[in-house]
Amino acid sequence: MRARSVSRRAAAAISSPTTTKSMFRRKEQLEICNTRNSDNTIIKIPIQSSQSFLSNTTTTTFSIDFPDIGKCVGIRFLPCSKETETQEPNWNELESYLHPEELQYGLDPNKTSQKSRTTFFLGRLAMRMALSLACEDDDECVVATPYDTLPLPPIVSRSDGAILKDSHGRPKVPHGFLGSISHKKNIGVALVTNSAVENEDSNSVLSAAPPSRGIGVDIEQRFSNSRGIAKRILTPCELGTLGKLDGVSAEEEVLLRFSLKEAVYKAMHPLINQFVGFQEAEITPHNNGTATVYLNLTSGAHTELLDENSITAHWRKVVLVDTVNNVEQERADNSMDTNDDCDDGLEPFFVTGSIVSLKKV
Fold this sequence. Notes:
By secondary structure, the chain is of the alpha+beta class. It contains six helices and 14 strands. The strands form three sheets. Strands 2, 3, 9, 10, 11, 12, 13 and 14 form an eight-stranded mixed β-sheet that branches. A four-stranded antiparallel β-sheet has the order 4-5-8-7, covered by helices on one side. The protein has a two-stranded antiparallel ribbon with strand order 1-6. A hairpin with a 2-residue loop joins strand 7 (about 175-185) and strand 8 (about 185-195).
């Protein structure tokens, strides 16, 4: 991440209704294997090398359950060889997994570049997979098999709604769900939870009700010059409490707290619809994968609109493992200076999620 990115407030968070639950039909399964440390905060994922749904790429998929927030799915594309590294994938191979309008949007040179095209498609594929997982406990959803494996994205038809963008750049997800997307380089993640509001009189689902909760996800890989950036994104109190997480260096923790703030801001945005500065929130991550969030918005919206006791945030550090070469893809601190535009697949990353609720009237 470059320093200039810090000034941008991503708004890719939540939902606008579009479609029915027919989008959850499945075609086949991808195996998944996550190994974790004792606190479940560091997830080691073997790189998949034999299964992919896009030619000339290696596909790695993973899932994370964020307690009290939702289900998160990530997808990573990597060229299979140096020869294919500069070649753009044949995105039309994804026509079974993407809505025609999504494919048309992503391939439109007036709307996407080659780089943003990759992240757009990764986000939509991850979102559809996350919706399938979230749909698992819903009787109205079509579920083919129990979840001992991670599904490929469900087959999509024209009758299914397209997951495009609203006016704030947030993904439009089906009625009854909240969803958020984030991406970095060649990795896309999506976080989904159920948004159904129960009518106290009739127990009916009010899918058209205004949102009372917001959800946010963020993914971040190591950026350069974290010491200089720290003073811009962390409060004095946060700066004084760095370096207390197991398996996370102080420099990495700067990035982790940045990511947690992004996730919380995304979750808040559809509820308060206003800019929030980095100094208006203090977030303390804990070794058990949770985080304490303290808000001090200059607008006072946190006391007037938000239920501060219901703000939940979680984090995970994801480490990819090359099982063929028996290499765990960690790097020394002196490798923090990386090129944000290229990826050799060796960087661990943080995934963070948050859910925020309005005050009950």
